[in-house]
Write a structure and sequence with these properties.
Layout: H1 2-8, H2 11-22, H3 27-31, H4 38-50, E1 54-59, E2 62-67, H5 73-83
Antiparallel strand pairs: 1-2
Helix pairs in contact: 2-4
């Protein structure tokens, strides 16, 4: 859970995850809408993919990324337990 918080605590990775939650996309599509290079986007996507937060599928020569919200379940459960009574 701490790893998820650390990963999504980075503003660029959070924006990437939020955009992929709305619609799947490629690194190039994400880079076209963010003030960072495509290379930086790819590095962020690799971290998110390694943690299981996003998945990728090959479509021709491109990799299309999409969020995998089920990997946020431990965080949702933790928040639920710790927000009770506040």
């Amino acid at each position: 859970m701490h790893r998820i918080l650390a990963l999504l605590g980075h503003s660029t990775r959070l924006v990437i995850y939020q955009r992929l939650a709305r619609t799947p996309g490629t690194a190039g599509e994400l880079a076209g809408n963010l003030p960072v290079s495509r290379t930086a986007i790819v590095q962020h996507l690799k971290l998110l993919e390694k943690a299981g937060l996003v998945g990728a599928a090959a479509v021709g020569r491109r990799r299309v990324y999409r969020c995998q919200p089920e990997f946020l379940q431990p965080l949702a459960q933790w928040l639920s337990r710790h927000m009770m009574g506040t």
